[in-house]
Amino acid sequence: MGIETMTMADAIEKTPISLLTAFLEKQEKYEKTQQLSKWRFVGYVLELGFDSAKIITSDPYKIAVGGIPRGSFIIMVPESFEGLIPHFTLLRVTGVATTPLSSQVQQTYFELHKKSMPEIDIWTQSELQWGALDCDVLGMFYPDPENFNKLSFSGDVNNVVSAHKYKVYSPDAQLLDLVVNSLVKEENKVEIGNLRTMECKLSSSENPIYQVPVQISMKDFMGCRTAMFGKTRLGKSNVVKLIMQGMLDATVTDKNVGQLVFDVNGEYANDGEQLDITDTDVEKNSLSICSANKERCEIYALTKRSTTESKELRLNFYENPEICLGVLASMLEQSGNNSGYVKGFYSSELPSIEDVVSEKKENLKIRSIRKIQMYWAILKKAGFPSNESNLKKLNLRAKSTFDFNPGFSEELRAAIEVDINQIPNTLDALVNELEKIAKFVHENESSSLLLSSSGNALFDSDDKAFLKFLRPSSSNSSGPSILRSYIKYHSPNAGDFINEILKSLDQGKTVILDLGNANKEIREYFSKILSSAVFSHQEIKFVNNKLGNHFIELYFEEAHNLFPKDDDLTGVYARFAKEGAKFHIGMVYSTQSPSTINKELLVQTENFFVGHLSSKYETKALSDLQISFAGVEEDILRSKTPGYMRMLTLSHRFVIPVQAYLYDPKIGEEI
């Protein structure tokens, strides 16, 4: 061994690439000592290009390594590293190829079958055992030239020489671990499953399938976009749970990532609600994220479940007038209540309590307070419970208009026949007075009493719409009673849940919104209002240079509704897709079909988990927008095992086939 060779050997000792040299030394020993059952040799290279390779192999070689399924990883190395830094090229098997002798082999088989397949002589048998495999060239692993302690990967190869200069091996567990995990960022690593290159689990006792744990770095998910694709009941939600738990585990000390989950089916908040696995696994996989992480999780639920501790996910319709009128508008419109006076009500506008309190112009403040009082009267008449003492504390006060007193002139109050010495001081009294005002307005539109002291109309078009809805002119009209079906979304004691949730997210907690019993409009409303609040919250921190190392991760189900294929990506969800990383906002979105998701979002997505897809159209849509999935389309179409995913993360340079663990806080059991 020359000095230069010794120096090279010393340089690579105890570095990642030393696993390769140790592997090759063992293979040489097995070959020389005829320990062929341990030999991982696969064959030789028949054709080689920069993107693909054709290798020649033989049945004994394939049997000795436990088979070479489509999608499996094999490595190609030079016959000699003399003068070269040790390295290997990674290949992925894509199919069976023809050889120069394929037609002759077929002719031999044909002749044997014609003769009822007699005993094959050893020479003919040897000839028939040879075949070829097509492979994709994924890239090259090699020591970083500037630091041998680091392993580098390139998506191309630095040189292609004559095919006979190479040998091909099936890697052992250590090399597979190097292939799968060496590129993953060192920070915040967690295991998500085991390497699984084929759906079939059949193996011989002499050649068991290697159990190689697959790692991901939660750093790859912070501020990044992650897609979950695959048919229902095949493990998407289970992988989402693994990512949530991984983020909780990785940030147990820093608590620098808050997670907000829009749980449309209640499967993340409640025990025994795992929906995307087979029925036989439901009992085994019954623990929810919150049950496993009680100190760092909070649940907000529209409908409280007896077995789950949760906070009320309600709106105080009285204290959030501008927001809740929009909610009522959406639900009324969706339910088809579009008659003129109803549409006039929900098409009106209301100021926020904060805007009214801060208004400096007295006349505008009075008008705004009266608008809110009319809205309150409608809610009260509809049967919405109230906390009147809390409403009085909102400080809605002007000169003569305050709390439940609209402050109308004595002349107008006398005309509507109320006691001018008794001002309204309850919601019931307010309803009574405004109903009489509504009747007077309907019957005396041109009365001078309906003019302000400055000569302007006392009520604008929105005021009149509210009054008409409070007391419809037709006895056949329902008025506020049509709102009663929405009382279930209201609570007079609902706190400021938006600010509560933002505070929890800043503390690194996982907040789950249990929207399992909500209709589509309510789900969309809570998703949008909280998404907007999160974006504004992070944007303010960005402007004030206070983002630091804190991130927020959002989890969306039924993503095709939020990021539709033909949408131009406007609004808050578009901003997540385009600007989320800048504001430290990441998101995990799930849907069945890649083709239903906006292409711009797919292009921007860094991490992918893809289960079974049943259409070539879907796999083509995926590989067209993420080239790394080209070559694994057939495997995605054929495999239907729950939890069997094709994974690509920000760290990985090629797709990793992984059997995800079944979610368990202890993790380690496959689906």
Helix count from the secondary structure assignment:
22
Shape verdict: elongated
Radius of gyration: 34 Å
Q: Compute the number of strand runs.
A: 20
Structural category is alpha/beta
Q: Tell me roughly what share of residues is in helical segments.
A: 25-40%
What can be said about the biggest beta sheet?
13 strands, mixed
* Mean pLDDT score: 86
**What would you call the quaternary organization?**
single chain
Tell me what portion of residues adopts beta-strand conformation: 15-25%
Low-confidence stretches: 1-6, 273-285
Question: Which secondary structure elements does this structure contain, and how are they paired or packed?
Answer:
Blueprint: H1 3-12, H2 18-32, E1 41-48, E2 52-58, H3 59-64, E3 73-78, E4 88-97, H4 102-114, H5 122-128, E5 130-144, E6 147-154, E7 166-169, H6 173-181, E8 189-195, E9 213-217, E10 225-229, H7 236-250, E11 257-263, H8 289-292, E12 297-301, E13 311-312, H9 321-334, H10 340-346, H11 353-358, H12 362-382, H13 388-392, H14 410-415, H15 427-443, H16 461-470, H17 497-506, E14 510-514, H18 520-543, E15 551-556, H19 572-579, E16 585-591, H20 599-604, E17 607-610, H21 616-625, H22 633-638, E18 644-648, E19 656-662, E20 669-670
Parallel strand pairs: 10-16, 10-17, 11-14, 11-15, 12-13, 12-14, 15-16
Antiparallel strand pairs: 1-2, 1-7, 2-5, 3-4, 3-7, 4-5, 5-6, 8-9, 8-19, 17-18, 18-19, 19-20
Helix pairs in contact: 9-10, 10-16, 12-15, 12-16, 15-16, 18-19
Overall description:
- With 671 residues, the protein is of the alpha/beta class.
- The protein is built from 22 helices and 20 strands.
- Strands 8, 9, 10, 11, 12, 13, 14, 15, 16, 17, 18, 19 and 20 form a 13-stranded mixed beta sheet that branches.
- α15 (427-443) crosses α16.
- It starts with a helix and ends with a strand.
- Mean pLDDT is 86; it is low at 1-6 and 273-285.
